[in-house]
Design a protein that fits this description.
Elements (H helix, E strand, L loop, with lengths): L2 H4 L2 H4 L4 H40 L5 H4 L1 H5 L12
Length: 83
């Protein structure tokens, strides 16, 4: 087999419609695989962040966060509201 016979078909005419279609198909496949990889990577990062966040922040009852509000009697409607 000579060197020219061993070359791929699109190397003989890289601007042909078939070569352009093959390149476009390969680009679309590569783009899709890249998007899937990036999405999987980002989802894993978000899962790790969510797990780390839920492990670090314990739930604190509102009576501990707002003791002055918890100390008021339930029927106390005389307090002022400030914005």
């Amino acid at each position: 087999m000579s060197e020219t016979e061993n070359r791929r078909w699109f190397c003989h005419n890289p601007n042909s419609a078939d070569a352009i279609a093959a390149a476009a198909k390969a680009a679309n496949i590569a783009r899709e695989r890249t998007a899937e990889y990036l999405l999987a990577t980002r989802l894993e990062q978000l899962r790790e962040q969510t797990t780390a966040r839920t492990e670090q922040v314990p739930a604190v009852p509102w009576t501990d966060r707002l003791p002055e509000l918890a100390a008021r009697p339930d029927g106390d409607a005389t307090g002022t509201v400030t914005a």
